[in-house]
Amino acid sequence: MITLFSFIYAFKVLVASSIFFVWVVRYQNIVEEFKTYQLPPWLRDLVGILKLSFSFMLFSDDAIVVFLGASGIAVLMLAALGTHLKVHNPYFKMAPSMSLMVICSLIATLTYQTL
Fold it and tell me: What confidence tens digit (pLDDT) does each residue in 10-24 have?
């Protein structure tokens, strides 16, 4: 039987592995994307540090830390979605940020309810 805990944990693994893959394995794509959007390298680095840090926070034993990590990623994904809209990207390019935003909002909400 799938419990709420295992459901949330699966989402945490999905979010963290997605962020790790994009910001570590495919980092060169991020460099090119930020250049295309004419965003400064310091912002790219800050966003990467925040996303990776928030991802690690998802696996804390402290529910407040998990809530902050999930909320932080959700806010960053909202900003990413705003950037995609600003540069008029097609919807398929917005899908990853939109889905991670929704998933992190769900993690944050369900974690908040356990406080």
Answer: 999 999 999 999 999
CA 94 to chain centre: 13
Q: Within 13 A of 66's CA, how many CA atoms are on the CB side?
A: 23
Report yes or no on whether pTM surpasses 0.70: yes
- Closest by CA position to 93, among listed 107, 81, 106, 103: 81
Locate 63 and state its tokens: 């529910």
Quote the CA–CA distance of 52 and 82 in Å, as a whole number: 20
Report domain extents, the chain. 4-113
64 pLDDT higher than 80: yes
